[in-house]
Amino acid sequence: MTMQLLSVASEIYPLVKTGGLADVVGALPAALASQGVAARTLVPGYPSVLARLGKTKAVRRYDSLFGEKAALLAAKLDGLDLLVLDAPAFFARDGGPYGGPDGTDWPDNWRRFAALSRVGADIAEGAIKDWRPDIVHVHDWQAALTAAYMRFGPAHAVPKLVTIHNLAFQGRFAADIFPALGLPPEAWGVDGVEYYGGVGYLKAGLVSADAITTVSPSYAQEIRSPDHGMGLDGLINGRIDRLHGILNGVDTDIWNPAEDPLIPRRFSGRSLGARAGNRRALEEAFGLDQDDAPLFIIVSRLTWQKGMDLMIDAIDHLVGLGGKLALLGSGDRALEGAFLAAADRHRGRIAARIGYDEPLSHLMQGGGDAILIPSRFEPCGLTQLYGLRYGCLPVVARVGGLADTVIDANDAAVNAGAATGIVFAPNDPLALHGAIARTARLHRDRPIWQAMQRAAMRADVSWTSSAARYAALYRDLLAEAA
C-alpha cells in the first residue's frame, strides 16, 4: 500500500530557490516514489510559484487565516504534486521569499510562516476532502511550527518529522507574538514554543517531532556540541534517540553532464576531453585568460559560514600559484565588494559575478577544474555533489556533509584510485592555502588528475540510498504510532 506523505517547505525547485533547501524538497518526491511513498508538497504561493502553475483546483478556502483571506490550491507541475497556499497578503510581494528588495527580512515573517504551518497542520487534520497524509515531513524553521500545531491539536497522533537543513536559521521572535499564534496556553513553556524568553519556531518543531533528521551523518553529530549546536545542543542531546543523519542527494537527471542542455559540450568520464570546450566558454563568459592554469570556481552564498572571508585572504596566494578563479554568489556586502576589488586587482585571473544564475552554475561545474568550499560548518552542501558529478573536483573543509562526501587525495587514496577531491583541516588560512597549493600540484599531473575526475564522477550522489533510509524511517514511525 502506498504511503501518503505531506511535505511542508518554504522553497521548492524549480519554482522558487534561494539555496539547497529548494533542491532537496524538489528532488525528494521522485526519489521516494520508487520506495512506495507518494509525496504532496505544501509551499507558499509566491508570485514566482503562482506564475508557473497551470490548471489548479481550490481544495480549501480560508475567510480568515491570521486575519487574511487565503485559498489552498492543488496542482501538478514537472512531476510534483503540489499544494500551494495562495495568500496574497502574505506572499504577493516583490523581493525574495524572506525579505524585501533591500535584503532586510519581512517584519511579519512570524505570521507568514505561522500561516503556512497552520495550514500544514490543518491538512494533517483532514482539511482536504478525500486525502489525508499518513505522515508529515517539515523542513527548517519556516515549516517547523507545523509539528507544534499538530502536537497540540487533533492531529497529534500523526507521525511528524522535522529536517534541519541549517541550524543557524531558527525563526526566533519576540514573546508577544505567542497569543496570535492560536496555540493553547500549555504550548508556552520550555517543552513547547518558548525559547530564551521568546518564541522559537525551529525549537518548537524539534521538541514536538517524533523524529529529527539532519542532512548528513557528520552534521548530526556536530550539532550535539556547543560549537555547532547554536544554543540547541542541549535539546538535541536530550532527544538523541530521535536524531538521524541522512545524507542529501541531487537530481541526477538535472545534473547530468552527459545530457545537460545548459553546457556547450556534453561529456562523461570516458570523454573528459570534451570538458575543454566548456572551460573555454567559462573563461570567455568571465573574461578570464585562456590558458591551462588550474581554474577554480566558487558558487556560494558570500557569508562567514561559507568561509568566504578566508577566501578573500587566499586570493593573492591562488594567483601567485598561477591559478584562476571564477566566482558566482551574493551575500554580505563587504565580501561582495572585496571579491569585486580582487577581480579588479587581478584582471584576467579573478572574476566575480554578484547574484545567482542557474545556467551559469552548470557551465561553471562543467568547465571548472576545482570548486572551493571552505565552509566553517556545512550541514550537507550540494555544490560539492554537483562538482563530483561533473568532474570539477571539490576542495573542501573537513566538516559536516563535506567530510561525508569527498575522499581526500592522500597518497593511499590516490594509489587506490579512490580520491575524489581535496579535504583540509583545520579550517584556517594556513590550511586553506595548503589545500589550494596541493590542488595546483595535483592538477599538473594529468593522469592523476583525470583518474580523480573519473572516480569523482563514479560517486553515487543520487537520492537512491537516502530515499530508502527516509522511507524506512517513515515506516518505523508509522509502526510506532500504530
TrEMBL record:
Under which pathway is this protein filed?
A: Glycan biosynthesis; glycogen biosynthesis
Which enzyme class, named as a word? transferase
| A GO MF term | alpha-1,4-glucan glucosyltransferase (UDP-glucose donor) activity
Biological process, per Gene Ontology: glycogen biosynthetic process
Provide the residue positions that the database annotates as binding ADP-alpha-D-glucose: 17
Query: Taking every annotated instance into account, which residue ranges of this chain make up the domain Glycosyl transferase family?
Result: 290-438
Q: Which UniProt keywords apply?
A: Glycogen biosynthesis, Glycosyltransferase, Transferase
**Which superkingdom?**
Bacteria
Q: Which reaction does it catalyse?
A: [(1->4)-alpha-D-glucosyl](n) + ADP-alpha-D-glucose = [(1->4)-alpha-D-glucosyl](n+1) + ADP + H(+)
Q: Which InterPro entries match?
A: Glyco_trans_1 (IPR001296), GS/SS (IPR011835), Starch_synth_cat_dom (IPR013534)
Q: Which residues form the Starch synthase catalytic domain?
A: 5-237
Q: What is this enzyme's EC? A: 2.4.1.21
**One cellular component (GO) term of this entry:** cytosol
Family membership noted in the UniProt record: Belongs to the glycosyltransferase 1 family. Bacterial/plant glycogen synthase subfamily.
Tell me, in a sentence or two, what this protein's role is.
Synthesizes alpha-1,4-glucan chains using ADP-glucose.
Spell out the NCBIfam families in the cross-references.
Answer: glgA, PRK00654.1-2
Xref: HAMAP family: Glycogen_synth
Q: What is this protein called?
A: Glycogen synthase
Organism expressing this protein natively: Sphingobium lactosutens DS20
Question: Encoded by which gene?
Answer: glgA
